[in-house]
Every structure is written in C-alpha cells, then in structure tokens.
C-alpha cells in the first residue's frame, strides 16, 4: 500500500505523539508499504528527508508560543495537492488536528481516498494553554470541543488508544466509526533485566533510593507541581528522591517551586535521557507517579507498568485503564498532593505490597505489545482500502452504514451502485478525481476503493 501520513511533529521533536507516529510509520515500511509523512520542519524552512525508509516531507513552520520545541506546520493546500498527486496514496492517516488535517480531509474526499485519524488529545488540554489563570476556561474548552468534534466527524474513521478517551468523544457527539488501538510498547525492552550489568545509576548520577520517577515533557498540563508538593510529606517518613525526566518550557517555574519548598536536594531534573537508557532507568526506581489529568493513554505510565513498577496516578481520564486501584498501584483524587504522598508512602513502607503490585503491572502490560498495534493498523488500512472489492471507488468509505444504497460487508460487495459515495446518507455523482482513481486502480490491477 501507499500510505500518506501527517503529523504536527516528528523526531527530533520529541513527545509521546511524535514517537508513536514514528514507530507506526517505520513499522509499515518494514512490512513492505510505502510511507510518506508530512510534518513540520524543525528549522522553519521546508525540506525533504528520509527516516529508515519513511519519506519525510517537512513543510514550512512557525514558532509555537506554547511549546518551543514543537513548531506549528504551515501547510498550503497547493503543496498538499502536489504531495497527493505524487504519492497517489491508497489511504491517508492523519495524526494531528491542525489546519493541515482539515485540508487533508477535503483533499481525500476529492481524490476518493479513505482517510482516518488517530486522536491523541482532549480539549481540556488545549483549553489549559488558551486560558488565563491556572485552570482551563470552561468557555474555551466548550469552543474547543465544538471545533474538535466537527473536525473528527470529517474523517471516515477515528482511532483512540483507550476506551475512556473514545467514550468522552462519543458523549460529545462523535458520529463516525471508531476503533480502539493501543499506542503500544516494545514490551520486551522493559521486562526484567537479562542479568547483564548496567551502570545507569552512575552515568546519570542518580541519588540514593528510594526513588520516585516521572517521565514526560515539562509542561503545565502534566501538573508536575502536584508531585513536587507531595515530596515534603513523603520525606517526613522516607528520604525519597523525585526524578523528573524530560525537557520543557515549564522547567523554570518548577525549579522555582522546588526552591520555594527547599527541595533542591530531593527533586532532580534529569533533562533528556536517551531512549536506550530508559528501561534501566525505570528498573532503578521504586515507583512511578503521575498527576496529569489529560492523559489519553500515557506511554511513560505504560513503560512503568511493563517494567513491573507500582504506580500512583491521578484518577482521571485514561489512567485507570493502566492503573488498577489496589492491584498494581493506587489512584488518587486529581490535584491532591497529600493523597498522592500517602499512596506513595503505603508502597514505600511495604516491600511485599510493592512486589505484588509490580507483578500485577507486568501482567497488565501484555495486551499493549506494539506488535499488536502494528498488526491492527495494517489490518485496518487493508480493510479501509478494500482489497478485492469490485466496482467504482467511493468518495467516502462504502462500508459506512450511513450510506443507504451501499452493498457493504453484509452483502459481500462493498460497492455503492452507480454513485461515488455517501456523505451523511446523501449519495453524489462520481467526480473526475474519483474516475482518475478508478482508472489508476484498474491500471495497477487492483479493484476497489
């Protein structure tokens, strides 16, 4: 298949989203598919590059006032048309929600190419950055929900990593078909060590145990201040240390908070840690803690669970799907440093409990093996492209039940007789782009949309 992807960013811009997009794109290349990915230029000026077989089309970008390391892509419609004409994609997979996503859904419809999105955020996350004060504005969040639902209802299908995330969108009016596909993890890398010595403690100059760990961008939405505020309570009973891994624009504010609380010897900003050092780093700590309320899955939490760590997490959004209260950790009320500290102390004070929770964590990580993620995405692409289907391709996915004239999977055909597709149940004639796509498919010996 020829797969066209888009993403707000891509490494060397580092975030949970960019790393997930990179590994999915690379995996599809390893499986024999041609992948082109449109993303922001980290330098501002457009250029092209390659990443392990993934063709990168870096478009012009502008500085992001909310994240200095993640510039905003400025994609012109004309440039995207050129990419589509050159790539002639069988499917388009969008991993972002900027103007580029809006343009690609329209161009996909014109070219009769199925288009799906993977959603990685909730509007509360956006509202936090667009609001004045410490708390997200309810008005801004409501407006963001309106934009978000309108955008994602333009896609043929939307993928979510967790049930909780999808449920939130369905409650707000998402109508298109959905799938649950975990962002996945290379479970083997985070299993118990193989017995070989590792000097990560020396190389990273880690403080004495016990150690609490948090890994992510240093950003306001991660609510790292709650973790810091919990440390004085914890240290009344245990000389624990908090390790913060990651870069971000919120570091200076957090450092000020550490100084204000007199925790300079207890809170350690490790900055960027190389990927090869992450598994041994997880194995060198005693528990993982996260206070964020905007996590739609949380790869760092999944890494901790796969390592076999007990976890203390805010009881918010998707975190309860990885942290079972009393089983592999504790869930605490959001924004409550006292409750977080008390939960951490229960684990630090009871090695047997910590061991049982760690064992349970490893079991809970098994379904998130990234090999399943790649299998599911590849199967979904093949389903949406419709290998083996006969007839003229639709401008929308023909198996969508909203098309009243479809002859979809139930009848074994998957074609819409005499029309190009259906939007909100109303069929429309084939466009020139649809006819071009049909001719291209016929010329390549492949039938169907």
Structural overview:
With 449 residues, the protein is α/β, with parallel strands linked by helices. It has helices at 16-30, 77-87, 99-111, 123-130, 138-152, 163-171, 200-203, 224-235, 251-260, 278-283, 299-307, 337-348, 351-365, 370-385, 432-443, and strands spanning 2-6, 34-40, 47-51, 54-59, 61-62, 72-73, 91-94, 115-118, 157-160, 178-180, 211-215, 241-245, 267-271, 287-290, 311-314, 329-332, 421-423, 426-428. It has two domains: 2-184 and 372-385, Glycogen Phosphorylase B (Rossmann fold, 3-Layer(aba) Sandwich); 188-365, Rossmann fold, CATH 3.40.50. The strands form four sheets. The chain has an eight-stranded mixed sheet with strand order 3-4-2-1-7-8-9-10, with helices on both faces. A six-stranded parallel sheet has the order 13-12-11-14-15-16, with helices on both faces. A two-stranded antiparallel sheet has the order 5-6. Helix 8 (224-235) links the parallel strand 11 (211-215) and strand 12. The longest helix is centred in the C-terminal third of the chain and has 16 residues, at 370-385.
How are the SSEs placed, and which strands pair?
Elements: E1 2-6, H1 16-30, E2 34-40, E3 47-51, E4 54-59, E5 61-62, E6 72-73, H2 77-87, E7 91-94, H3 99-111, E8 115-118, H4 123-130, H5 138-152, E9 157-160, H6 163-171, E10 178-180, H7 200-203, E11 211-215, H8 224-235, E12 241-245, H9 251-260, E13 267-271, H10 278-283, E14 287-290, H11 299-307, E15 311-314, E16 329-332, H12 337-348, H13 351-365, H14 370-385, E17 421-423, E18 426-428, H15 432-443
Parallel strand pairs: 1-2, 1-7, 2-4, 7-8, 8-9, 9-10, 11-12, 11-14, 12-13, 14-15, 15-16
Antiparallel strand pairs: 3-4, 5-6, 17-18
């Amino acid at each position: 298949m020829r797969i066209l992807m888009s993403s707000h960013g891509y490494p060397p811009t580092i975030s949970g989203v960019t790393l997930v997009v990179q590994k999915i794109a690379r995996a599809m290349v390893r499986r024999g598919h041609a992948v082109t990915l449109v993303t922001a230029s980290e330098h501002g000026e457009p250029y092209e590059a390659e990443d392990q077989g993934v063709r990168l089309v870096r478009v012009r970008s502008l500085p992001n006032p909310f994240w200095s390391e993640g510039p905003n892509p400025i994609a012109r419609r004309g440039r995207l048309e050129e990419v589509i004409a050159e790539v002639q994609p069988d499917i388009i997979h969008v991993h972002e929600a900027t103007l580029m996503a809006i343009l690609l859904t329209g161009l996909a419809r014109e070219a009769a190419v199925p288009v799906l999105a993977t959603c990685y955020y909730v509007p509360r996350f956006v509202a936090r950055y667009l609001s004045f004060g410490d708390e997200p504005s309810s008005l801004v969040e409501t407006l963001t929900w309106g934009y978000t639902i309108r955008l994602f209802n333009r896609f043929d299908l939307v993928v979510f990593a967790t049930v909780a995330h999808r449920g939130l969108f369905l409650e707000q009016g998402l109508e298109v078909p959905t799938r649950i596909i975990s962002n996945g993890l290379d479970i083997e890398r985070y299993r118990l060590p193989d017995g070989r010595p590792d000097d990560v403690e020396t190389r990273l100059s880690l403080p004495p145990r016990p150690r609490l760990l948090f890994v992510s961008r240093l950003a306001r939405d991660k609510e790292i201040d709650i973790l810091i505020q919990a440390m004085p309570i914890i240290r009344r009973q245990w000389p624990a240390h908090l390790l913060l891994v990651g870069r971000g624009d919120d570091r200076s504010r957090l450092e000020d908070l550490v100084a204000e609380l007199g925790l300079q010897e207890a809170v350690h900003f490790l900055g960027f840690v190389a990927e090869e050092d992450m598994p041994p780093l997880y194995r060198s700590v005693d528990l993982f803690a996260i206070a964020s309320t905007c996590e739609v899955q949380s790869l760092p939490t999944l890494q901790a669970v796969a390592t076999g760590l007990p976890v203390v997490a805010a009881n918010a959004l998707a975190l309860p799907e990885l942290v079972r209260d009393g089983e592999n950790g504790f869930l605490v009320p959001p924004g409550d440093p006292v409750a977080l500290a008390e939960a951490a102390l229960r684990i630090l004070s009871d090695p047997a409990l910590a061991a049982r929770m760690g064992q349970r964590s490893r079991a809970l990580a098994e379904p998130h093996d990234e090999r399943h993620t790649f299998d599911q995405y590849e199967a979904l692409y093949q389903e949406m492209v419709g290998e083996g289907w006969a007839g003229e391709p639709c401008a929308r996915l023909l198996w969508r039940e909203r098309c009243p004239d479809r002859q979809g999977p139930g009848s074994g055909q998957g074609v819409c007789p005499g029309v190009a597709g259906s939007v909100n149940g109303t069929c429309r004639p084939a466009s020139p782009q649809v006819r071009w796509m049909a001719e291209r498919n016929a010329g390549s010996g492949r039938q169907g949309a």
